[in-house]
Amino acid sequence: MTQSTLYITLRPAPAALERLLRLVRHRGFELTQVQWQPEGVRLSVTHEHPLSHLTRQLEKLADVVSLSEEAV
């Protein structure tokens, strides 16, 4: 399994974090760490699927303003 970290900026909207976390789970990625900060969310995930499968879906969420992968 591969470990990856994403930094995601969300619009301030009701249930935005819930939608984000649900999408991660539904795509088969295991969430290992979540750090909520006023400016965004840092997610660490382990995965067997290519990370691009998750990032493409996250970018489609209306609540996501920006998304970047961080070096582990």
Automatic annotation (TrEMBL):
Source domain of life = Bacteria
Q: What is the protein's given name?
A: Acetolactate synthase small subunit
Output the lineage of the source organism.
Answer: Bacteria, Pseudomonadati, Pseudomonadota, Gammaproteobacteria, Enterobacterales
